[in-house]
Design goal:
With 184 residues, the chain is of the alpha+beta class. The chain is 35% helix and 21% strand. The chain has one domain. It has five helices and five strands. The longest helix has 23 residues, at 157-179.
Length: 184
């Protein structure tokens, strides 16, 4: 009896550990997935969506500044219609990483950016839609410079500059993926 209970407890512990990992392990945590789903529903104003992972060949991925391994780039479908694309990424804050998403129109212009999970006490201002809305409408070919065409944030310098760099890297990478015909 004790052996059976300890086995069940061990399995339960492993499952809970697996669900608590953030995106950096290659799996999207349940917490992060719920936030992604809510962001998609509110941004695209649809209830029924399906994400289809886009696999980027390793040789093409190695030529991009952003990482496209481990389920980071998706098509967003509502019914049979492609309604946009989603990129799930991580960027560094002062001591830890935070999770963000970029949602794109079908032409790969940014529809919305959102910080989903921020793990620091300071710098949370980067999650403000007031600051994040600067990325809306940007597309590959746009050059982002923190403090120049992207506003700086006092008290969130590291996070905001890294978010700016991350978005710029994704946009540059989208351009490379299009040139190499890894995406349409």
């Amino acid at each position: 009896m004790w052996k059976e209970n300890s086995t069940i407890l061990a399995i339960a512990a492993l499952l809970s550990i697996g669900l608590s990992f953030s995106f950096s392990g290659g799996e999207i945590s349940l917490r992060l997935q719920k936030k992604i789903d809510a962001a998609i529903r509110s941004t695209y104003e649809v209830d029924n969506v399906k994400l289809k992972s886009i696999t980027v060949p390793l040789d093409v991925n190695s030529a991009t500044p952003a990482d496209f391994t481990d389920n980071r780039l998706f098509e967003i479908h509502s019914g049979s219609n492609l309604i946009g694309y989603l990129y799930v990424g991580e960027a560094a804050s002062m001591k830890r990483k935070f999770d963000y998403i970029l949602m794109f129109h079908t032409d790969f212009t940014i529809k919305k950016s959102k910080v989903l999970i921020y793990r620091e006490e300071h710098g949370k201002q980067i999650g403000s839609q007031r600051w994040l809305k600067q990325f809306i409408g940007l597309s590959f070919g746009d050059v982002l410079t923190y403090g120049d065409n992207i506003d700086a944030i006092s008290g969130a310098t590291i996070s905001a500059s890294n978010m700016t760099k991350a978005v710029g890297d994704v946009l540059k990478s989208i351009q490379i993926l299009k040139e190499k015909e890894a995406i349409k």
